[in-house]
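User: Could you check the structure of this?
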Amino acid sequence: RLLEATKSTDIQMWAVIIPPSEGATSLPYRSDYIRWSRELAKLSLKYANFRGFNIDDLQVGRSHDTFTRDYICKIYQTKEQINPHFLFIPTIYDLDRAVADRVTGCIDGAWLWWVNLEMETGLPSFLENTRYAVEGRFPIYGGVYAHWTSWHKEGNPDPKVFRGTLEAACKYADGAVIWQLSIKPGDPLLEEAKQFLAGGSSPYAGKCGTEDPSGKH
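Assistant: Sure, the predicted structure tokens are below.
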């Protein structure tokens, strides 16, 4: 229904599927991730604005045992056979060389989340080291939280920290993904995010993940 409602807009839709470590409660296929891949890819043939799907926490807890390289590749190959333009980009929190080797060739990229809502210090090296581990084999997108979480109940990030985290993601990753950004007019984090759109005040306005103004990356 959501795809039908947005099919004539410029809104690009993604599906996020709950992993075993969080209960695998996404309906109707629950933990049958190959079935999810097949059915979502079929939908993408009908709806051009349906860009891809994400499985959260690919390497966390029980999910690590479920998502072996063989299983990840089967998920990827299933959607590839139906629509290779439909993207499979899972969430990964710790992307070292071993994990990169495990998923290379079987994902279209990774959402890599920075979990420190208090500061952006350390994020540039975190992303740079990840790029060295990945060695250009697939894109990484810096995940930025715009809302408090179950493990950080002290409140939303400070607007300056949020902006700094976004800038680091734009500079050192292939783009940025924002989690739970408010769309309430005047929200300070929404106003910061707008500065990354074309015409905004950020040096990455309109080109997040595509160019480093310093020329170093």
